[in-house]
Design a protein that fits this description.
Elements (H helix, E strand, L loop, with lengths): L4 H9 L5 E7 L3 E6 L10 E4 L7 H12 L13 E8 L2 E10 L5 E6 L2 E6 L3 E3 L5 H10 L11 H7 L2 E3 L5
Helix pairs in contact: 2-3
Length: 168
């Protein structure tokens, strides 16, 4: 995907309603508004959260979407979730691991745009039915995810996104 204003607009459309920086003015700072309300141009970018900053509430919600086992929904609570990451080379949080305790142990792994669910130590279950709903949910909450074959790092390098907590 070429780095054009048209492709930037396509990318911004999947983050409808998120904060967009239209321009940076030396005397005023960033001019921020919502996607869809202003004209987007070549310096506009989205301010998104890294997946490493996922909240326990959001982790529980996506685990419920992925696991879909009514008998275990009560165990997927914010008090039971442990969120941790793994550093792989230069990419911090290349893998996000969410672990949920209880009589069933769930591990939800996210790596490079894919989710995998482990249930009970080693027995794995791939649940692809709700991945689009998970991605839509995470984007609606402002988390940076790969899109159109571009990694989060590539989106940052193109100037399409700035990660919260990163350089301005």
């Amino acid at each position: 995907m070429d780095n054009t204003v048209e492709n930037r607009l396509k990318f911004f459309a999947i983050y409808w309603g998120q904060r967009v920086c239209l321009a940076v003015y030396p005397h005023e700072g960033e001019h921020i508004d919502k996607v869809g309300q202003w004209n987007i141009h070549h310096v506009s970018h989205l301010r998104l959260k890294p997946i490493s900053g996922i909240t326990a509430e959001d982790a529980c919600y996506i685990a419920m979407l992925l696991v879909q086992r009514p008998d275990s929904m009560s165990k997927l609570t914010e008090g039971n979730v442990k969120v941790r990451g793994r550093i792989d080379g230069d990419h911090a949080w290349d893998e996000l691991v969410m672990e949920f305790g209880g009589s069933f142990n769930y591990t939800v792994r996210y790596r490079g745009g894919d989710f995998l669910v482990w249930i009970d130590k080693g027995r794995s279950e791939w649940n692809s039915n709700n991945h689009l709903e998970v991605y839509d949910y995470l984007r609606s909450k402002g988390y940076a995810l790969p899109a159109y074959g571009l990694s989060v790092d590539e989106l940052v390098k193109r100037g399409w996104i700035v990660l919260e907590g990163g350089p301005q």
